[in-house]
Design goal:
Helix content: over 70%
Number of helices: 12
Strand content: under 5%
Distance between the termini: 26 Å
Number of strands: 2
Shape: globular
Strand order of the largest sheet: 1-2
Structural class: mainly alpha
Length: about 375
């Protein structure tokens, strides 16, 4: 019983489907971190004779284009690891709050990780760059890349099946939270979608910026420090303010968010064109990072466009009573938990017919009090 309570305190529901969802996420995190950790070790061993890179990690040779590629192998693997930790956070939070929108988003994010692993394998073995050719005869590295894709494929299938079960299991929570008001339920749906999109925006934009700053730009380039010192912190601050504007329904701040989101696609389209059009083949800074950066730019651009549209929908729902409904539900939930703790401290025994896995609700409280 004590163990079950501890699991509940960690946010894991008692549903078998919810716990399987978390278990798959944790197993995938463990497998990918182990695989990518060994890949990093293999990469460092292969380039052991090289010199230290400009950033103090990885290795580089005398040729500048080669140094970027050798360093990039480690950066890409680190992104895999960070992505898995981010995925685990998404899954844990989604299950703890019974958020079906975020559960679906976590499943789609896992599919994006699978696509990223396919791009990496393509860069290594199907259409290898000149500098990646050193891995052509490395059988262990090939097996590790294939294993990574297999893990993502199997987990994507498992996530898809569990998402369907959790969608049916948690689907009625919105009704319990907001009642039968269809307008509020639609507004709450847009609210949840925007919250999830903002989380994905943070991950993809920071990942893109880190790759751009460490793999393409140089330490001596002022744009590098602008990207690291201004663009990345500024973007994170902007997205945090977006969360705040959505929560408190601040219309002025939300207008600023919508305007910034509407202008952002121009930047990503510019970077997309710059990476793929009019590049000097003899001095190509995107030689080995083009596929990865293009993937992140396209995904981030799509997310920004969707976020822009959803933000407008949420702005239109400001003042309809959603904020008050959510606050009222949270207050009632806190009061119910306080009442339950008070009854437990007073020594009031729970009815023996009550299922220990039963979710504590207002109906349950009135039954116990009576």
């Amino acid at each position: 019983m004590g163990r079950r309570l501890n699991l509940k305190r960690c946010g894991i529901p008692t549903s078998i489907w919810a716990r399987l969802f978390i278990a798959v996420a944790m197993l995938e995190v463990f497998a990918i971190i182990c695989i990518q950790g060994y890949v990093i070790k293999r990469t460092v061993d292969i380039y052991r004779d090289g010199t230290e890179s400009q950033w103090g990690f990885g290795v580089q040779s005398g040729n500048s284009s080669m140094s970027i590629t050798q360093q990039s192998f480690i950066v890409y693997d680190v992104i895999f690891i960070v992505a898995q930790l981010f995925l685990l956070m998404l899954c844990w939070e989604a299950v703890a709050h019974k958020n079906t929108i975020q559960i679906i988003a976590a499943t789609l994010f896992n599919v994006m990780c699978l696509v990223y692993s396919l791009i990496q394998y393509t860069t290594f073995y199907i259409h290898p760059s000149q500098s990646a050719g050193i891995f052509q005869n490395d059988y262990d590295m090939r097996i590790l890349q294939i294993t990574t894709m297999a893990v993502y494929s199997l987990c994507s299938i498992a996530f898809a099946m569990l998402t369907w079960e959790l969608y049916q299991l948690f689907g009625w929570k919105t009704y319990k939270k907001l009642g039968a008001n269809l307008a509020l339920r639609r507004a709450y749906k847009w609210h949840q979608i925007l919250l999830t999109l903002l989380k994905l925006d943070i991950f993809f934009f920071i990942s893109y910026s880190v790759q751009l700053a460490t793999l393409v730009l140089r330490v001596s380039d002022p744009e590098t420090w602008v990207q690291i010192g201004v663009v990345i912190p500024g973007s994170v601050l902007f997205l945090v303010l977006s969360f705040w504007a959505l929560k408190v329904e601040n219309k002025r701040m939300m207008v600023v968010v919508i305007v910034c989101l509407g202008l952002s696609p121009a930047y990503f389209i510019y970077k997309l064109v710059r990476m793929n059009v009019g590049i000097d083949r003899d001095n190509d800074p995107y030689l080995d990072s083009r596929k990865y950066l293009t993937f992140f730019v396209v995904v981030t651009l799509a997310l920004v466009l969707v976020t822009f549209y959803v933000s407008i929908q949420c702005f239109r729902n400001f003042g309809t009573g959603l904020k008050e409904a959510i606050a009222d539900y949270d207050a009632r939930k806190a009061q119910l938990k306080a009442n339950k703790a008070l009854l437990a401290n007073a020594g009031v025994e729970q009815p023996s017919t009550v299922n220990p896995d039963y979710e504590y609700t207002e109906v349950h409280e009135r039954f116990v009090l009576e």
